[in-house]
Backbone:
């Protein structure tokens, strides 16, 4: 059986048996090779589920939307499973809230160009890290040699060049907040940009406000970014957001040791929410 | 009249020496209308821009007035009017239709928005008909002709080596008569444009009247992220918020685009939110596009440009919704 057939069969069984209330996967969109997230509660809809090389969206963030109905089943690849781990470690959901049908991911493709998605070429964990069962085997995918290649491009700039570079990025931002809304780490009940009484971020669209939003988000995501690359994929203005996220990750690696977020379920505080007396403090 | 394609750039350069001419182009990777200047290459083969041209009339951030208090404690208000003569050259018929919608909102029913009115008065619209459609274009289903924009001041239609030029308003006639050195007499048949994506709007407006509580909204909204992408790339979305920033004795009042997708959009001072979840927000957005606006102004607020279909992060597709509404069976009204 193909992974898609297993996913359909298991979604149907899990919904019919009442083990889960909702199942999240993908269905075909209107256009060639297009998929779109699908959330079903009726086992009769399981036949709509698809799994192919064009499943661009991650699914974990939908769990919180439908959790009130009961246990949630979903398909997880490497990125989806790390997002689930993130949500569990951040105490947004519990492990027993979800039933995870893992699937090996060969990396997804852009439906128009048929080229691998940038986020998938950068992915280091394509197969699920946490799952209740697997739909088929793990998949092979090349792991990028240099996780921080893009960061080096920015670091090679002079301070003035870097200022201009950031300005050119944030001059384009339209503040649709798609990067925040798709992010499995952005789980604040109320985002700082929506706190109008405090007015942390002004509503004017200009480089200063846009940059303040963008860079604050980067720092706030900090040690929680699972590098799924969804923010960069969904940005309608094609801002190079992963460059910024990876800069912070590279700095953390440098200061506190090699680190990747969302690999294991753990109650331990993450790097930036704890400290040790031996931590480097060069700036003090 | 014909404008040979060889004469297009000389005409544009001549126009740009007097006024700001906005053309479709790609700036830092973003397809949008930008002012023709050194280093800006117009691209009239681009099917459509990612960002709609609405910001020429309704900028994302618009200063309205500035206020301050002088040494004697007197208040002063300084109004802003940043409108100026502008030409938008190469706007597509779908985007011209969006200006019909914006005109209705900002200029009719007894409410005239001065900022919009000033900018609109000073804008010359030169539309270029399409020769090819994207897979997401569905303008013909929304009553738009891809090769003809009836409300453009000047209509250019591609005939191969030249554009057929038609002045359609007094403003357009004045413009075209000033372009005479670039034009030649003649006529030619415009190239057609085949729009393949089609949906049926038949019965959709009336059907929506009975669909406020339909499960269709739950199924649709569940995958929405509630980001503002669809509303900001939409050529007809026109909601704005008025706000101010103060520094000591100075302040500025401005308005900026707002999005009905944001929870904050309907949040009230006391904390109540009449559209608390994405279901209510999605329903409002699509009801506004396909029903409310039709009821108030007699036209759809969707022009079929396909930008939201193209850019939605989760491929939430208004054309699929229109199909779903078409095939939806409205329950007969109960006998109560």
Residues:
């Amino acid at each position: 059986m193909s992974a898609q057939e297993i996913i359909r069969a298991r979604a149907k069984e899990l919904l019919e048996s009442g083990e889960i209330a909702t199942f999240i996967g993908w269905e075909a969109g209107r256009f060639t090779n297009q998929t779109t997230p699908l959330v079903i509660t009726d086992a009769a809809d399981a036949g709509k589920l698809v799994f192919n090389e064009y499943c661009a969206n991650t699914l974990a963030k939908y769990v919180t939307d439908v959790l009130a109905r009961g246990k949630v089943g979903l398909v997880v690849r490497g990125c989806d499973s790390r997002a689930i781990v993130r949500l569990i470690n951040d105490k947004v959901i519990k492990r027993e809230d979800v039933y995870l049908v893992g699937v090996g991911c060969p990396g997804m493709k852009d439906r128009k160009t048929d080229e691998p998605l940038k986020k998938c070429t950068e992915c280091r964990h394509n197969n699920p890290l946490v799952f209740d069962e697997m739909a088929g085997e793990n998949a092979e995918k090349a792991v990028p040699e240099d996780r921080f290649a893009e960061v080096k491009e920015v670091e090679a700039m002079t301070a003035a060049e870097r200022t201009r570079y950031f300005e050119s990025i944030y001059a384009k931002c339209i503040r649709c907040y798609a990067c925040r809304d798709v992010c499995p780490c952005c789980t604040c009940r109320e985002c700082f940009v929506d706190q109008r009484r405090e007015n942390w971020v002004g509503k004017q669209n200009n480089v200063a406000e846009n940059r303040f939003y963008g860079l604050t988000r980067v720092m706030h995501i900090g040690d929680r970014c699972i590098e799924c690359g969804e923010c960069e994929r969904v940005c309608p203005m094609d801002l190079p957001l992963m460059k910024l996220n990876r800069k912070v990750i590279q700095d953390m690696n440098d200061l506190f040791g090699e680190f990747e977020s969302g690999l294991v379920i753990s109650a331990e505080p993450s790097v930036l929410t704890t400290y040790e007396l031996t931590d480097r403090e060069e700036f003090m | 009249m014909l404008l040979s394609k060889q004469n297009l750039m000389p005409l544009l350069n001549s126009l740009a020496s007097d006024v700001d001419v906005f053309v479709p182009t790609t700036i830092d990777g973003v397809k949008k209308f930008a002012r023709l200047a050194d280093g800006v290459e117009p691209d009239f083969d681009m099917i459509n821009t990612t960002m709609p041209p609405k910001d020429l009339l309704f900028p994302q951030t618009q200063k309205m007035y500035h206020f301050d208090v002088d040494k004697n404690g007197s208040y002063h208000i300084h109004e802003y009017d940043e409108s100026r003569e502008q030409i938008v050259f190469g706007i597509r018929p779908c985007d011209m239709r969006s200006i019909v919608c914006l005109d209705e909102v900002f200029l009719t029913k007894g409410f005239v928005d001065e900022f919009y009115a000033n900018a609109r008065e000073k804008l010359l619209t030169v539309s270029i008909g399409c020769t090819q459609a994207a897979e997401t274009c569905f303008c013909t289903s929304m009553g738009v002709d891809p090769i003809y924009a009836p409300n453009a001041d000047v209509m250019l239609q591609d005939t191969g080596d030249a554009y057929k030029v038609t002045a359609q308003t007094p403003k357009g006639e004045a413009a075209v008569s000033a372009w005479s050195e670039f034009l030649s007499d003649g006529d030619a048949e415009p190239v057609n444009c085949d729009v393949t994506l089609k949906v049926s709007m038949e019965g959709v407006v009336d059907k929506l009247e009975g669909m406020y509580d339909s499960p269709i909204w739950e199924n649709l909204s569940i995958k929405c992220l509630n980001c503002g992408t669809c509303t900001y790339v939409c050529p007809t979305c026109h909601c704005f918020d008025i706000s101010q920033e103060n520094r000591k004795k100075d302040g500025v009042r401005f308005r900026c685009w707002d999005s009905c997708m944001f929870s904050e959009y309907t949040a009230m001072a006391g904390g109540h939110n009449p559209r608390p979840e994405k279901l209510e927000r999605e329903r409002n957005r699509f009801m506004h596009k396909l029903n409310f606006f039709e009821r108030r102004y007699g036209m759809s607020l969707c022009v079929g440009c396909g930008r939201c279909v193209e850019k939605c992060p989760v491929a939430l597709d208004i054309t699929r919704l229109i199909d779903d509404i078409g095939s939806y069976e409205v329950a007969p009204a109960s006998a109560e």
